[in-house]
Each structure stands twice: as structure tokens, then as C-alpha cells.
Request: fold
Amino acid sequence: MAGRRTGRSRAALALAAPLGLVLGLALILAACGAPDGAGTGAAVLRVNGSTTVNPVVSRAAELLRAERGLEITVDTQGGSSGGLAALGEGRVEVAMSSRPVNQHDHDAYPEVDFRPVQIGVDAVALVVSRDVWEGGVHALTRDQMQAIYESRVSNWSELGGPHVPIAFFNKEPGRGTWEVFAKWLYGDPDEAPLVSHLEVGSNEEGRTKVASTPGAVTQLSFAWADGETVFPLAVDSAEGEVVPPTPETVAAGRYPISRQLLVVTDGEPTGTAAELIDYLVGPEGQKLVEEAGYLSLGEADGAMETAGGAVGEEAPAS
Amino acid sequence: MSLPAAAARPAWLFAGRRRLDPIRVASLAACALAAAFLAGLVGLLAVQSLPAWRHEGVAGFLAGGRWFFRARTFGALPMIYGTVAVSAVALVLAVPVGLGAALFASEVLPPRARLALKTVIELLAGVPSVVYGLLGVLLLRDWMYRLLSPFDPLSGDTLLTAGVLLAVMILPTVTTFSEDALRGVAGAQRRAARGLGLTRGTTALRVVLPQALPGLAAAALLALGRALGETIAVFLVIGRRDNQLPESWLSAEPLIKTTQAGQTLTTKLGGSETFLAWGDPLHWAAIAGLGLVLLALVGAVTLVGALLVRKGAGHAARS
Reply:
């Protein structure tokens, strides 16, 4: 009997040892995988979302860490929709978004009380590569852009430019830039025709690929349209008014493709989140918005109407 | 009393007649855990992808050529084609080079130089894929754009670019496993061949190579497994263009199409659509379905590779 009992306890030990090991490893991995995790005790604020909003929030996080010792991690997984999804799932406390919170978000996360706060205004520029710009294409009409989007034209010569094929890099779905662009082009992103183009994700990727591809065009946040590697086109309105994307035209509400830059929380922001958001809408934060090339809230009064009604909320699609 | 009891309990867990062997029990537990993870993963993907299989039908999902999530149309074939095309390009380029390097290392180099070479190659295998991706964006895109100009690609982002990049990435894997397979052939065989008056080259090609064949095939398949699953590097240079299918399979079209942009299973899963899909059961099911297809592809390749390794080992042991 005694011998058998030892056998059993040994077996129990043998079973427990690897399980303990695995559990221990899992705990360590969990701790490493989420250095910003809530479980670590330190109040680390996690932010995720739009690469357009990111430069401002990242800079603010850096300054707040230096000045007030706040721990804020900023990530850009999946763009605006990725950020809102992460907020919906509780993986982050603050989402950055360059598109309004829409009905799809509310449907996906009915429990979540999305509270958008506007921190600035951005415009979406249509940028082209050097050869197109120097070939004489400096503006596009909405109809011309639709023709490009629907692949009804395939060469810049059809639009008065050089004889180069049009390489259209479309922003991938879920990006705030694409949503705003599609809204301008078709009235409602859901109405945009089904097409398959080359795709780009972040602003960096879009700029790099357009700069290095002849005949390239893409939608890019106007703060990234440097005029040296990629060149922003003016929008030629039906009335014959040619409006380039500049801070002045965006602020005056004349440039048609603009949008609100948002940070979003679940319910009323508290603690570090509230501190970050107060900083962003305050004078220091607004200076960072301007430094990143966007319009601050004060500058952009005229742009509010184009960017759409209530802050950060979109009427449900009919 | 003891006889039926002994029959009921698995004898292989016991060290003596009565004592459980802790090492055997522990390793059983570890095995069970690993198997449970795999089964759980497959089960989870299968269950979550169910709505997509119902919506499209199994054939419709696997052979459908259109993927438009806003139109609720989910066909995975363009991505399966992209995955197969990119992996095939990678294998066609990497296997001859890797095999050549392995032959040189195994049959020609003196032992010390061989070890040095092998160390360097294995270091190369450990370079993170995002580094290869950056090199691809910086150099390969432009080169391929110029090289492919007769085919009028829209940009340097093509299936071929991704395949060439993958070939570079899997080359160390092919080389080091091929070399192992060649070294696995007994030295006595080589000496016998040389004793019969065969040259070193003939010995390598006619004696060593045929015997190492299962191991060499396994090397290629294990490398293929890596190629199928690679995401980041491919993501940056493939163009991520949806719904690109050759018009006809029985022509040069599937080859010519590799000079254009495309999409693989992994680049689709790595894109932002995965974030959009969450919360929409059908769309999410379609994404999970892509994951399941990818898992099945990699699993099948790995399984065949592992079987070949075993066969190769058996072969080497017999000779």
C-alpha cells in the first residue's frame, strides 16, 4: 500500500511539474507581451489607432512622460478601425481615429459608450509622384478621380498628363483616410463601387510607394504631402474653382476632403486618459497639432462644417 | 485480482510493476498539452468559420474568385493562387541554389570550413523577416520594376517580387537541411565509390545525392512551410491587390500573372480587414476560414516533410 501511495504522489508531482512550468511560462509571456498591461499595477495608459493622429499623441505622450512621469504607450495597429476595435474590446483605454465613430462600430460593440473628442482637423490630399506632377497634372476633378477609382482611365495622358500608366494605390479598408475620401467621392463610403487596387496601409507606406513608383497616385493625409517626394493635387470643383490643400483653404472650409482628428474613450475619460486628452485640447497640445502639420481647433472653425456635424459621430447610414 | 487490473492500465506508463514512471508521465502530459493546443486551434477556427462555409458552400469558398466583404462575397481562390504562386517562385529559385551550396559544403569543403559556413548560414536563417521586408522595399521593388518593365507592371509590388524575397529568406533553411541530409549518407558509401575509381563529382551526384533524396525533399518542404506562413516581408512588396486570378489555368497566364500585384492568405490576414471583420459574424467567419485554409496547407506540407525526414533517416540507418 505504502509503495503505491508514493507512486501516486510521484505521479501527481510529475503531472504538476510540467503544468506548473507551462503556467509559469504563460504568466511570464503574458507579462512580457503586455508591458502596458493593467495587471502590472502601474497605471499605464494604452493608446492605439490612426497613423494620422499618431504623431500628435506620440509627441504628447513623450512630453507627458518627461514632465509628469505618466506612462503612455502609443501603437498604430490597424489604423482608425483597429484603434476603435481595440477600445471596444478593452485592449486599450484611448483610441485614435481620423474617421467618425459610425453605426458599424456601435453594432460591433453595443456595450461600449464611445466618447469622441476632437483635437484637430486634417485634410486628405491626392498625392502623385514626381513624373506626374512635372508632366503637368496639378489638379483633378471629382469626376476624374472617380474615373481613376473605377479604372475607367488607365493612363495619365487621358487626363492631360504624361504618357504613363496610372498606378493607383488605394488606402486599405478600415483606414480613416479611405473613409473620408470615399465619402467625398461617392457621398457615403458604403456607396463606393467594389474595386480591387494596389493597397497601402500607413501614411509612411503610402508616401514611400508613391515616391518610388512612376505614375503613382494615392490618398494621403495632407500633413504628409511634403511637396518634395510626393506632390498634392488641387481639387478642381465643378464651378471651375481650383483649390489646393493648404492650411488656409482647409481652415476656410473650401478644400472639400477634410475630417476631424479624434481621440475616443469608453465613457467619460478618467485618470491618465483625462489628463492626456486635456493636454491635447489645451494650448500645448494644440501647438503639437500645428507642428504635425494639421489644423488646431482654433484655426479650423471654418472647416467644421465640411468635417461633418456633431463631433466624431456619424449619422447611421440610411 | 492483479491480472485484469494490469491489463486495464497502460504498462508503458510504469517503470516497475507498480510504480508510475514520473518521466514518462510528465512527457505524456507535455505531449497531451501540445496536441490539445493544436486541436483547440483547429477546432476554434473550424467552428468560427462555419458561417462562411455555410454562406458560400465549401466549393464556393475555396474556388470562388471574388472577395468583396461589403457585398458579402467571399471567395478565397485568388489568395490561394497568390500563396501557391509566391511559394512556387521561392522554391524554384531557392532549391537549386541551396542544394548547390549544400553539395559544396558537404562534399568539397574541409570540416572546419564547413562548420564555419554552416554557422553563418544558420545565422542568416535567424534574421527577422521584417529586416528582409525592409530590404525588399528599399532595393528589390525598384529592381523588379525595371526588370519586369516589358510586362508593364503597375509598380514594383508583384507576386514575383514577393517570391524572390521569400527565396532569399528560405535559402538558409534549404541549405542547412539539405546539408544535413547529404551528411546523413554514410561515409563508407563515399569511400567505396572512390575505391571503385569514381571521381569525387560522380560520387556526389550518383551515389550521395540519390541516397539523400528523401531528406532533400524534406528540406524543400520544410522551407515551403516557412514560405507559406511568412507574412510581414511579403506584405510589404506584394501590392495586396485583391481578386487577381489568371483568366485561364491551361496557358502561360498563371505564370505571366506573377508579374502583377496580388494577395496571399497571409497578407490578407495581416491587413486591416481583420480588424473590420470582428463584430460581423459572417465576415469574421470568412477571415477565420482563410486561417483554416492556411493552417491546412502548412500542416499538410509539414506532415509530408516530416514523413520524408523519417524515411530519409531510415534510409541512412539501413545503409
Summary: The mean pLDDT of chain B is 90. Chain B is about 75% helix and 0% strand. The longest strand of chain B covers residues 67-68.
